[in-house]
Give the backbone structure.
Amino acid sequence: MTEVTITAKDVKALRDRTGAGMMDCKKALTESNGDVEKAIEILRVKQGKRIEDRGERVPTEGTVQTYIHSNGKVGVLVEVDTETDFVARNEELIAFARDIALHIAAAAPEYVSQDEVDEDRKQAELRVYEQEAADKPENVRAKIAEGKLRKWYETVVLLDQPHVNGDKYDGKTISQLLDEVRSKTGENVIIWRFARFAVGS
Protein backbone atom coordinates (compact mmCIF):
# COMPACT_ATOMS: atom_id res chain seq x y z
CA MET A 1 0.00 0.00 0.00
CA THR A 2 1.35 3.43 -0.95
CA GLU A 3 2.05 5.66 1.99
CA VAL A 4 0.00 8.84 1.93
CA THR A 5 1.69 12.16 2.73
CA ILE A 6 -0.06 13.81 5.66
CA THR A 7 -0.10 17.59 5.21
CA ALA A 8 -0.49 20.27 7.87
CA LYS A 9 -3.81 21.17 6.24
CA ASP A 10 -5.06 17.57 6.74
CA VAL A 11 -4.04 17.68 10.40
CA LYS A 12 -5.78 21.04 10.96
CA ALA A 13 -8.96 19.81 9.25
CA LEU A 14 -9.06 16.76 11.55
CA ARG A 15 -8.38 18.93 14.59
CA ASP A 16 -11.26 21.23 13.59
CA ARG A 17 -13.54 18.21 13.27
CA THR A 18 -12.59 16.53 16.53
CA GLY A 19 -11.00 19.09 18.85
CA ALA A 20 -8.11 16.64 19.44
CA GLY A 21 -4.52 17.88 19.76
CA MET A 22 -2.40 18.48 16.65
CA MET A 23 0.07 15.67 17.40
CA ASP A 24 -2.75 13.20 18.18
CA CYS A 25 -4.43 14.11 14.89
CA LYS A 26 -1.18 13.63 12.98
CA LYS A 27 -0.57 10.21 14.58
CA ALA A 28 -4.15 9.09 13.87
CA LEU A 29 -3.91 10.19 10.22
CA THR A 30 -0.55 8.44 9.84
CA GLU A 31 -1.97 5.27 11.42
CA SER A 32 -5.03 5.37 9.16
CA ASN A 33 -2.89 6.20 6.10
CA GLY A 34 -4.83 9.40 5.50
CA ASP A 35 -8.32 7.94 5.91
CA VAL A 36 -10.15 10.68 7.85
CA GLU A 37 -13.09 8.55 9.04
CA LYS A 38 -10.72 5.84 10.29
CA ALA A 39 -8.56 8.50 11.97
CA ILE A 40 -11.63 9.80 13.86
CA GLU A 41 -12.36 6.23 14.95
CA ILE A 42 -8.75 5.81 16.19
CA LEU A 43 -9.01 9.06 18.18
CA ARG A 44 -12.34 8.04 19.71
CA VAL A 45 -10.94 4.64 20.76
CA LYS A 46 -7.84 6.25 22.33
CA GLN A 47 -9.46 9.31 23.89
CA GLY A 48 -13.04 8.19 24.46
CA LYS A 49 -15.74 10.74 25.16
CA ARG A 50 -13.40 13.70 24.83
CA ILE A 51 -13.49 13.22 21.05
CA GLU A 52 -16.56 14.21 19.13
CA ASP A 53 -16.96 14.17 15.36
CA ARG A 54 -18.10 17.70 14.66
CA GLY A 55 -18.47 16.76 11.00
CA GLU A 56 -18.88 19.76 8.79
CA ARG A 57 -19.71 22.05 11.69
CA VAL A 58 -17.53 24.90 10.51
CA PRO A 59 -17.11 28.02 12.63
CA THR A 60 -18.78 30.83 10.64
CA GLU A 61 -19.63 33.16 13.53
CA GLY A 62 -17.27 34.71 16.03
CA THR A 63 -15.93 37.74 17.83
CA VAL A 64 -13.04 40.15 17.34
CA GLN A 65 -11.61 41.45 20.61
CA THR A 66 -8.80 43.87 21.41
CA TYR A 67 -6.22 44.63 24.03
CA ILE A 68 -4.32 47.91 24.29
CA HIS A 69 -1.49 48.03 26.82
CA SER A 70 -1.75 50.82 29.40
CA ASN A 71 1.23 52.68 27.89
CA GLY A 72 -0.56 52.79 24.51
CA LYS A 73 2.46 51.27 22.74
CA VAL A 74 1.23 47.69 22.20
CA GLY A 75 -2.12 46.64 20.80
CA VAL A 76 -3.69 43.36 19.68
CA LEU A 77 -6.68 42.32 17.57
CA VAL A 78 -7.74 38.67 17.80
CA GLU A 79 -10.50 36.78 15.98
CA VAL A 80 -12.07 33.81 17.76
CA ASP A 81 -14.59 31.92 15.63
CA THR A 82 -17.56 29.81 16.72
CA GLU A 83 -20.39 27.91 15.05
CA THR A 84 -23.27 30.03 16.34
CA ASP A 85 -23.91 33.70 16.99
CA PHE A 86 -25.33 32.70 20.39
CA VAL A 87 -21.94 31.40 21.57
CA ALA A 88 -20.07 34.24 19.82
CA ARG A 89 -22.00 36.74 21.99
CA ASN A 90 -21.52 34.72 25.18
CA GLU A 91 -19.75 36.80 27.87
CA GLU A 92 -17.47 33.88 28.77
CA LEU A 93 -16.26 33.51 25.18
CA ILE A 94 -15.71 37.27 24.86
CA ALA A 95 -13.72 37.23 28.13
CA PHE A 96 -11.67 34.30 26.78
CA ALA A 97 -10.91 36.19 23.54
CA ARG A 98 -9.86 39.26 25.53
CA ASP A 99 -7.57 37.17 27.71
CA ILE A 100 -6.00 35.71 24.56
CA ALA A 101 -5.46 39.25 23.21
CA LEU A 102 -3.77 40.24 26.49
CA HIS A 103 -1.55 37.15 26.28
CA ILE A 104 -0.56 37.93 22.67
CA ALA A 105 0.41 41.47 23.69
CA ALA A 106 2.73 40.11 26.40
CA ALA A 107 4.09 36.93 24.77
CA ALA A 108 4.33 38.17 21.15
CA PRO A 109 3.72 34.86 19.33
CA GLU A 110 4.14 34.84 15.54
CA TYR A 111 1.79 32.00 14.57
CA VAL A 112 -1.49 30.56 15.85
CA SER A 113 -0.48 26.88 15.43
CA GLN A 114 2.53 24.77 14.49
CA ASP A 115 1.15 23.99 11.04
CA GLU A 116 1.48 27.69 10.13
CA VAL A 117 5.23 27.66 10.76
CA ASP A 118 7.16 27.80 7.50
CA GLU A 119 8.84 24.41 6.91
CA ASP A 120 12.15 26.04 5.88
CA ARG A 121 12.25 28.03 9.11
CA LYS A 122 11.46 24.94 11.18
CA GLN A 123 14.22 22.94 9.45
CA ALA A 124 16.69 25.81 9.94
CA GLU A 125 15.94 25.84 13.69
CA LEU A 126 16.26 22.06 13.84
CA ARG A 127 19.68 22.19 12.12
CA VAL A 128 20.90 24.70 14.72
CA TYR A 129 19.73 22.46 17.58
CA GLU A 130 21.28 19.38 15.96
CA GLN A 131 24.56 21.29 15.70
CA GLU A 132 24.32 22.30 19.37
CA ALA A 133 23.81 18.65 20.32
CA ALA A 134 26.73 17.43 18.16
CA ASP A 135 28.98 16.83 21.21
CA LYS A 136 26.36 14.61 22.87
CA PRO A 137 26.13 10.80 22.39
CA GLU A 138 24.68 10.00 18.96
CA ASN A 139 21.69 8.07 20.31
CA VAL A 140 20.34 11.14 22.19
CA ARG A 141 21.12 13.94 19.71
CA ALA A 142 17.80 13.76 17.82
CA LYS A 143 15.85 13.71 21.09
CA ILE A 144 17.74 16.77 22.40
CA ALA A 145 17.14 18.65 19.12
CA GLU A 146 13.41 17.76 19.17
CA GLY A 147 13.16 18.95 22.79
CA LYS A 148 14.76 22.28 21.88
CA LEU A 149 12.43 22.61 18.90
CA ARG A 150 9.43 22.12 21.23
CA LYS A 151 10.78 24.88 23.50
CA TRP A 152 11.21 27.13 20.44
CA TYR A 153 7.59 26.49 19.44
CA GLU A 154 6.59 27.85 22.85
CA THR A 155 8.23 31.16 21.93
CA VAL A 156 6.57 31.56 18.49
CA VAL A 157 3.35 29.47 18.46
CA LEU A 158 0.33 30.83 20.35
CA LEU A 159 -1.36 27.46 21.04
CA ASP A 160 1.87 26.03 22.53
CA GLN A 161 2.40 28.90 24.98
CA PRO A 162 1.37 28.72 28.64
CA HIS A 163 -0.89 31.73 29.33
CA VAL A 164 1.11 34.64 30.75
CA ASN A 165 -1.36 34.91 33.65
CA GLY A 166 -0.01 31.81 35.41
CA ASP A 167 -1.88 32.53 38.65
CA LYS A 168 -5.26 32.63 36.93
CA TYR A 169 -4.66 29.75 34.50
CA ASP A 170 -2.34 27.53 36.53
CA GLY A 171 0.29 27.15 33.77
CA LYS A 172 -2.18 25.83 31.17
CA THR A 173 -1.33 26.37 27.52
CA ILE A 174 -3.57 28.36 25.19
CA SER A 175 -4.39 25.05 23.45
CA GLN A 176 -5.60 23.56 26.76
CA LEU A 177 -7.67 26.66 27.52
CA LEU A 178 -9.19 26.48 24.03
CA ASP A 179 -10.09 22.82 24.57
CA GLU A 180 -11.85 23.82 27.82
CA VAL A 181 -13.88 26.46 25.96
CA ARG A 182 -14.84 23.86 23.34
CA SER A 183 -15.97 21.46 26.06
CA LYS A 184 -18.03 24.14 27.82
CA THR A 185 -19.72 25.46 24.68
CA GLY A 186 -20.01 22.15 22.81
CA GLU A 187 -18.93 24.05 19.70
CA ASN A 188 -15.97 24.06 17.37
CA VAL A 189 -14.27 27.21 18.70
CA ILE A 190 -11.04 28.27 16.99
CA ILE A 191 -8.57 31.09 17.33
CA TRP A 192 -8.56 32.06 13.67
CA ARG A 193 -6.00 34.88 13.48
CA PHE A 194 -4.44 37.78 15.31
CA ALA A 195 -2.48 40.94 14.66
CA ARG A 196 -0.09 42.48 17.17
CA PHE A 197 1.01 46.09 16.83
CA ALA A 198 3.94 47.62 18.69
CA VAL A 199 5.19 51.16 18.32
CA GLY A 200 8.59 51.25 16.66
CA SER A 201 8.60 47.63 15.46
